[in-house]
Amino acid sequence: MQNILWFLLSLSFAQEDPNDGEQTEESDTSEDDDTEKNENATPDQGTEAELKRILESTYKDTVPEKRPDTSPKTEKEASNTEKSPSPTQKKTAEQAENVPEKPDTPANEPKASSSELENAEQLSELSREELRWLQPLPQRFKQHPYQHVDFTSYTLEWGEFQVGLNTLKAGVLPRTQVGTSVPMWVFGIQNAEAKVNLFRYKAFDVGLDANWLSLPANDFRMTYLGMGANSSIRIMEPWTVHIGSQFASFSANGLPDLDAVNPFILDMSGIDADAYRDELAADNVGFDLRTSVVILKLATDLRLNRRDSWILQAQGIIWHNIDASSNFNDSDDVPSFLNVDAIFALESQGFSDISQSYVVSIAHQWSWNHSYLRMGIGWSSMEQYAFAPAILQTIDYAWRFGGKTKIREGKIRKGWRDNQKRTDNPEGAEGSD
Asked: Is the pLDDT of residue 259 over 80?
């Protein structure tokens, strides 16, 4: 044990002090003081004290003493040490950060005092003139690009109905409608139609449609079947262009029974149905016609608002396949204005001259709350009665109801009517509430 202590003591004396001379003098002074204090101590006690002093002087640079930290600090560390907030201060600072900043207000801006608020006057109720100006008329509603459903790829809404002079239609499923032509039933022609708005992407729509009609009779049979496609492109918010085509197959054979035609139509044409019918039957006149055609359709509508719109339509046959035969030449009783002898002598196939089969028309449509009226003029390639084929395109009146759009508009009008009642009779309105 003593050998070890002396070995350590010798190491301490042999070690060079890295400090300057002043520190060495202080060390020597401290050693002298310790020696004087331990003169009266026993050998063991002096040895332990000496060992302790040697260890402290040897490892004073490696073993830190518990003394205040006097090392210099950077400005950032000093600021963090001095400004470290307490938990309460942190919570207060977070609450202050969450409070939205108030916009700077001019110093001269007047602030409403409590007395001014008490003296404020209540706004007067709307007058009849002001309420009439706010009336939800159709021309004040936002335009409806899917309003027209006859020459477009659009359909009636689910649960919507349209009852008109030309057609009766109903929306039976989403983007699906069925219908029939009322005037054809007057002539005894059975008919039906259907349309599906198959595809819609933004302002582009594609629809498929089908038409069927038949005139069953003992001596005469007529059948028509058409299938087509139509696309609608909304060029601008109020303007849409429609392009479509239809393949139609038509067949007829026998001799028409003119007695089944509406008497009013016969009176307008000046035909003596009974006389012609009996004479043609006596001559055993008949025909057999089978034809297929491809019809090209173009249309556009310019919507001024929800009520007013302009409609332009055009169509014509671009391809045909006609196979007809008749014995009309054996009789002199066929009316000349019908040109049926020339029609039933046709037999050809190929592309058609559209100038021989065109129909064009322009019309204006007024759409009100539940009804619309379409009026216009048109022209066709027919030599006689050229305006007749365009009638179905330009003249129509229909009543339309049901569907989410009409129901929503009805609720707006109902709210306006309730406000009007409260304006006319405010006391009664308050009592009813």
From this structure: no
